[in-house]
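ugh ok so i messed up the first submission bc i forgot one of the chains. this is the corrected input, ALL of the components this time, i swear. 683 residues overall. if the numbers dont match what u have on ur side tell me asap before i send this to the collaborators (the ones from the other lab, u know who)
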Amino acid sequence: MNTHETHSTLTQAEMPLMRHCPLVTCGQEVKRGERIATSSTPGMGDIHTPVAGKVAHVDTFRIRIDANGDEQVDPVSLDDLSGSNLLITLLELGADLPQVNTTETLIINGVDAEQGVLTRQELFISSRATLERGLKTAVALYNPQTTVLAALKGTAQTLDGANTVDISEQYPSGLDPMVALAVTGREAPENTVVIGLETLFQLGRIMETGLPIMETMITVGKEGKIVSLGTPVGQILDEAGEVIADRDRIVLGGVLRGAAAASPSHGVGRDTSAVALVNNPAPVAQDAPCVGCGECVRKCPARLDPSMITSYAEFGMYDKAAAEDVDVCFECGLCGFFCIARRPMLQYIRLAKNELALAQAQSGEEV
Amino acid sequence: MKPFNPFSLTVSVPPHRHCGVTVRSRMLIILLAMVPAAAMAVTQYGIAGFRVMALSMATAVLTEIVCDKFMGRESQISDLHAMFVGLAFAFLLPASAPWWLVTIGSASSIILGKMMFGGLGGSPFCAPLIGWALCRISWPAFMDIDATMLTMDLVYPLAQLKNFGLQAVTATDAQALFLGKQLGGLGVVQIAGVLMGGLVLVMRKHISSIIPVGVIAGVIITAGLFNMIDPEVYAPPVFHLLTGSTIFGAFFLATDGPSSPNRQIPMLLFGMLVGIMIIIIRVYGIYPDGVPFAILLANLFTPVFERIRPRSFGKR
Ligand code: SF4
Ligand code: SF4
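and heres the new structure output, hopefully the right one now
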């Protein structure tokens, strides 16, 4: 088993929820590794506390736990599980595994798409054995005809049991849909599953320890670091020697797509690839009408018309946004980066997608 | 605002970094790209040329402020677009244009060509051309470049061509035309300056090269065809490129964002349509310089061209 010097002692852990249902209430005592929220999204894993202690706060978006003691749950034995039993157990242990019926091609995305993020690159260096263990498990789960590792051109990364395909470092080539295109030669190919390298790492950790996922690799500054999930981002930046000043922003993920943390106690989640301090004073995006310059249209790798989509979203005309194929957008964020009116492009797109999904869910329930 | 102790975080949606080009910076660079031609115009026409440009720009900015007041919206004049509209409109006028013509034209460019449609980005037309068209139709005598500029020893080659035929055109020396030794709109005929500014914009990627290339190709092909049919009657392509506002239109007016298509093939077709229409209007129309109307007409076709679009990623 790999050992990582990771768990700089946590006094408090904050677990971000992604539409999970909390299973604990305030004041409740929890053991390390206890399940505290269950997923309501197919293919998304449950959430477990990385520290033993007492639940201090629960709301729709987060559960906060004050650390105390070191009681831990017992490891689960996974050796004699297979097929759907294994899948269910892994989801319960916090792995994020897309659900599909048949898989022709399994693609492991080992490319850090956004500039400045080197999480996946670091995983190759630090945790190769865990990754290979994870890959074996993924192959057993998906039973693909071919397994491909998408790796950055020039890094010559390999994993046992997967063919390597080179991916250009030009953004957005490293995003899942672009990687799937590069590997299969088709856009949005059927029966193809793309999973990120960190998911492989997490699978590997579960198989090695029998414990739920409680740690992840993130990029801080110019290096990768394995940290406990739920670590407050403020603490991470402190330890990296960064000083947070008034009006700075803490960005989780890359600068084009990442979210800004609302407070330094915001915890690292499974999908956090990087934690960075960005200090430009003014918000980049502003509430401004489209000036029709066409930059976004020419830059969109999905060949959409982001100016129309976002203008429709702005005025609540979500059906029109759907007719403009908003569902095709893979949220690369380039339209917002280049918008000369500095419109919050990605936010409008996500709003439209969200509203459309809600409408669909509602009409589905009524039928 | 007083800083919070110890700090408050900025929370905003992605992106958290930006390419840096804003509406204001782009307009500023476009204005700077017009400076060489403006300087040449001042050299040629003296204070008269300067007066038209300054008045037009001031009117445009003031008009926009007043419109913003009436419409109850936050003023966007700091984005400098009104300055661009004012200067571009002035470029199209004869240096002798009376003050009221400049004022009315510049104000209507802003009101009818921009604010009526909800400000920058809403208008289906290139704004300065709206003012130009209004003035050209309402007060043709004052917009007529030849009639108003009899005091100059330069000639308006396009009017000579229109009224007396190719034989009568006296200014045919390409180099002289290139250096602005001709009459026409006070700024647009400073071909050397306009071209220099246009090329800077293309090189710095503030405008795409596709539309200018389309316009120039359209002019060369159409004028070339006519010229081939009868070189005695129809002027050669070079003449059409170097006279009137062809080059200015190609680089500064046809490339106006909201009124032109955004994708590559539609942009090329749009440019070609402008180029073809320029020559057709110059050959058959009643206006010596076809550029403004050619661009306005092509603006109308923008939605049609926009229908040519690739399939979205992964849609079959
Ligand atoms: S985020 Fe913008 S540029 Fe990227 S795919 Fe979506 S619409 Fe296109
Ligand atoms: S980049 Fe921004 S301003 Fe330009 S067309 Fe797109 S949305 Fe409009």
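quick check: Residues 23-142 of chain B form one domain. that seems consistent at least. Chain B has a mean pLDDT of 89.
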